[in-house]
């Protein structure tokens, strides 16, 4: 099995496991990315085939579109008083359940929705596990477009190596769902993720960064047993 097929299978395994945790009547935060998309599709299947009644709170245009295509009723945060459970992917996960998110540029809304959930369930394949955050993935930072220059300077001053995220099949920078720009910052070492999360958000012009420290309740990791079967490892 190729690397891409393996990852897809493990993402699917984690997504399906997370959807089993969703109860009838729940208000559900709908994450962004390829793993969250698999969870939304499975949730839609349960709505259609099992008569499950839920309300989805999307974290992005992507999540909203997939939810609607799958027959899931969506609402905004103004319409609900709580979120029971949120299911979302991640770019990196450490052993303390801290995350880097924002590979899809949706971390700002994701942090709001996932952070409000009584239970925030993270769905990943085993390639996302790291000993230390920042090992493989830069920290995404959403920035007001007019503040890009000074924010880049500050990030360099903090020891980071910032790069403006550029579009694919779109010339120029990526624009977030909120109309902002994204900077991906590589840090030589992230010793204290909680402090870095706070310090990044203290920079004037920064809207939100992709470090999610102390927010996740459960991590569901799709992995493989010795016989090549897809299994779940769960961190509570
Ligand atoms: C989007 C995210 C995604 O959850 C993260 O990038 C993981 O994506 P995928 O499930 O496609 O690997 O944070 O902003």
Note down, in words, how this protein is organized.
The chain has two domains: 3-130 and 214-235, Rossmann fold (3-Layer(aba) Sandwich), CATH 3.40.50; 139-207, Alpha-Beta Plaits. Helices cover 31% and strands 26% of the residues. The chain is built from six helices and 13 strands. The chain has helices at 3-20, 34-50, 61-69, 107-116, 148-157, 193-201, and strands at 27-30, 55-58, 83-88, 92-93, 99-100, 117-125, 139-143, 161-164, 181-186, 206-209, 211-212, 218-224, 230-235. Strands 2-1-3-6-12-13 form a six-stranded mixed sheet. Strands 8-9-7-10 form a four-stranded antiparallel sheet. A hairpin with a 5-residue loop joins strand 4 and strand 5. Helix 1 (3-20) packs across helix 2 (34-50). The radius of gyration is 18 Å and the shape is globular. The mean pLDDT is 97. Ribulose-5-phosphate binds next to helix 2 and helix 4. Ribulose-5-phosphate (5RP) binds at residues 31-36, 88-91, 101-107, 110.
